[in-house]
Amino acid sequence: MLLNQFLFLAAFLFATGVYGVLARKNGVLVLMSIELILNAVNLNLVAFGAFNQTVTGQIFALFVIAIAAAEVGVGLAIVLLIYRNRRSVDLTGIDALKG
Amino acid sequence: MLDNAWIIPLIPVVSFAVILLFGKRFPSKGASVGVFALLACFACSLVLAGEWIGRDKTVETLHHATAADIALAQAEVIELGGDHADEAAAEDEHAVAEDEHAESGSEEHEEAVFKRAPVVHETTWFETGGTKVKAGILIDGLSVALLVVVSTISLLVHIFSTEYMRDDRRKTHYFAALSLFTAGMFILVTSSNTLQMLFGWELMGLCSFMLIGHWWEDKENSNAALKAFFTTRTGDIGLLVGISMLFGMAGTFDIGSINGLALGAQMDQGLLTAAACALLLAVIGKSAQFPLHTWLPDAMAGPTPVSALIHAATMVVAGVFLIARMYGVFWQGFHIGAGDGYTPVALVGGVTVIIAALLAFVQADIKKVLAYSTVSQLGYMVMALGVGAWTAGVFHLFTHAFFKACLFLGAGSVAHSGSHHSFDMKKDMGGLKKHMPITYATFVIASLALAGIIPFAGFWSKDEILVGADGNGYTAFLWVGVIGAFMTAAYMTRCIYLTFHGEPRGNAAHHHPHESPWPITGPLVFLGFLSVVAGFAQAPMLGIELFADWFEPAFVSDVVTHHGFNGALAALGMAAAVLGALVSAGYYVRNLGPRGVVERNKLAHAGYAFLSNKYYLDDLYTDGVVGSLKGPIARAAYWINQNVIDGIVNGSAALALMLGRFTYDVIDQRVVDGAVNGIGVSAEGSGSALRTIQTGKVQQYAAVLFLALIVFAIALWKFTS
Lengths: 99, 721
Fold this sequence. Notes:
Oligomer: heterodimer
Number of helices of chain B: 30
Structural class of chain A: mainly alpha
Strand content of chain B: 5-15%
Distance between the termini of chain A: 52 Å
Largest interface: A-B, 13 and 13 residues
Radius of gyration of chain B: 33 Å
């Protein structure tokens, strides 16, 4: 089975996601990058599940999708409120917790 | 009703809640709720008893009746005639069968005895560690008998209280506690396992405490309540230990199983004896047996109806009930069946009979006379169970409840209407006979029953005890019983004479005594009636053995032996009672015998002082036990305080002063302050250095997070592969 190809794809997606989270300034894009990370993990889970001939991986992936949906709901709500208060979603400007 | 007997404990629980929450809104302050609830309980108990008596006999006991018993049963059928034909039908069949055998001349033939099967309904209460603890009801002869007694007395006491406590300021609480107490007693007598029994037992102890201290404004009353609570708690330790031991041995709390295992000799004998001893301690505490009887006379500080219900007829017999209920444990643990002259249970009971009866002679308070009499009669019951006369003991419980409640309520009636709330026979009573004819008549009837004069109730039950003690090989306790009967008759004669005869004294002379109204006389008349007839439930002299037939559970019938009527013993008991009454009457009424002997004779005076100080038991407990623990400890603590601690304190003060100076100069100013300032400075420096990390930028935090993750992943990879 073509396991390695899936793993490479997932690794690429994961790295892209990490780059997005760390480097992008736009809050919405950071959230989208988080989704990329989660989906990279989903891909791994499903790939390993198929490799091992079990459905456990798919079930885990389903849970991850469900929780990601909830998480993105909360995340978008936060971004929306930030936009209302500051008329901008630029993350570099948000440093109210600066020590 | 047999299957739904849980209703009976439930009614007073509901009534308790209603009185407590809404009682003050009723015009009667909640009294009517209590009376109606008890009326319902009383009706349910009677229906239950009827159904129980009508229940088919399906359990064959191990004990086989001999030809003589069958002949007796047959005689009973003939004597009772048509009235009891239904009840006797089962026996009739056996009797007919036996007749044929008797004709064929087989004297050795034995007929099986059948008893009613107990009704058990249980549900799982909780489950822990793989043990299911059940809650449920066990209805057998013993519980039916107790239910009838408790509901009857409780109903009458409720009615009595509506008048006696009419203007009491805490009437609502009084009736709520009375309801809760009744519920506790019902739970105790119907419980199918020992844990539930403990629950009912403690509930009653609590209500007893609340009701003794009902007028807690007087320090004396609240002291009495505390004394009762603590003394019975001492015994309760035994109950807890006993229940735990029995659970450890049997692996269950179920009463039927425990009795079965004990009687089947399937438990370790040594441990079983130890468990029986522990349970006996509980009995001694709750049923006021020697040497823990001292709380009961003090408990008379409570309202008189409470004394009648709790401290005469019901709660104090809980200990007797415990022996009767767990009879397998006692029977096997103490070898009651061996008949070797004495058992610990019988010894406790026998000593209590004599000791308490002696104390009743020197009391001036009418309620205390009755209280010591109760202690003495409880001794009779415990003694009866201890000598293997199960039915006699429970039967005495049954009859005693009626006549002792009657006596207490009579004393309450006297105090309510005759002596202006005084219970002092010597100061405030006398000559009340003509003012209170109904109270007088019922009091005398109940006293005759208590003294054991034929044909009143006490005669039959006391006679059963004497016969049992004699027949089972416990001759010494037969004589204890006879002496007890002599003393009972004597002190009751004294009590009646001082209260109702002679010249009026004190309040009885100055406060216009009159007869009490019907809520007081009604219960008195009813109880007086029961004091006459209750004994005929078990009168072997007339061939009636209904009480044993109805109320003796099968597991008890397996082991105990019944003895027929013994004319000589009955005559002996009667003679002792009559002699006691005559001697006492001669001394008090006819003024015979030595007068002033107590004042003149040193020995007699010492004896009197010994008795009026209650054998110095209270002094022993307060000074000996509490004092020996408290006094020396307090004195030692004081000495240590004065010499050791003060010396240490003074010495250390001087030392401290010196050290303080040194500390301030060297340690405080240089070392501590230096350290504190140093820490402050370094904290400030490191804080300002570290604050640059806290940028507040979420992406920098994320970067740190990912870096840490990478380090962690590398570490995991390196160390696991």
